[in-house]
């Protein structure tokens, strides 16, 4: 197996759980306390086995880059995003505003990543995005239906070299771990298409 490093950037509104998802995935921990991310940070997870679309296993290192959702703390230049191989677009299922902002985050990411994937970062929907509705453990407070998110994913997608598919959508919980492993593996799998 060949070893690759894949850079996965997490974006979305403040408070949706980006840092919590990164911490859950890289260290298996969760805290209910909120501490706003200032600037950005990254953590790695080594020796992740990812099967590509042809069923071939790859041994990869995932570099997870966490960003600040609060605009005033988000003064990151394009350097931070450059070379990103995949992007997690996160909203909170109890916060419709965070869902409405997905377009903004997707657009901003594509503008900043620029030189990342040659020719693949245009608006035709080819960049490997994965859409996450986080806080699935708070189903009683849900204000965004999965169907709404899936419709957005269909509209945001375009033709890929794997054919035309909606962007993948998962409901996750950094609190219970639901689907957390799966979203990172799916992001890596999509990134491998372009390697
Ligand atoms: P910024 O750094 O400001 O952009 O916020 P963020 O997106 O990194 O959010 P963060 O991970 O700090 O989480 C915000 C709050 O939501 C914290 O109190 C977390 O404990 C809580 N939280 C995050 N994920 C979940 C989840 O899946 N379920 C529940 N119930 N709470 C969560
Ligand atoms: Mg954060």
TrEMBL record:
Keyword Nucleus part of the UniProt annotation: no
Gene Ontology molecular functions: GTP binding; GTPase activity
Keywords in alphabetical order: GTP-binding, Lipoprotein, Nucleotide-binding, Prenylation, Protein transport, Transport
Superkingdom: Eukaryota
One biological process term in Gene Ontology: protein transport
GO cellular component, one term: lysosome
Family according to the record: Belongs to the small GTPase superfamily. Rab family.
Record protein name field: Ras-related protein Rab-7b
Organism of derivation: Cylindrotheca closterium
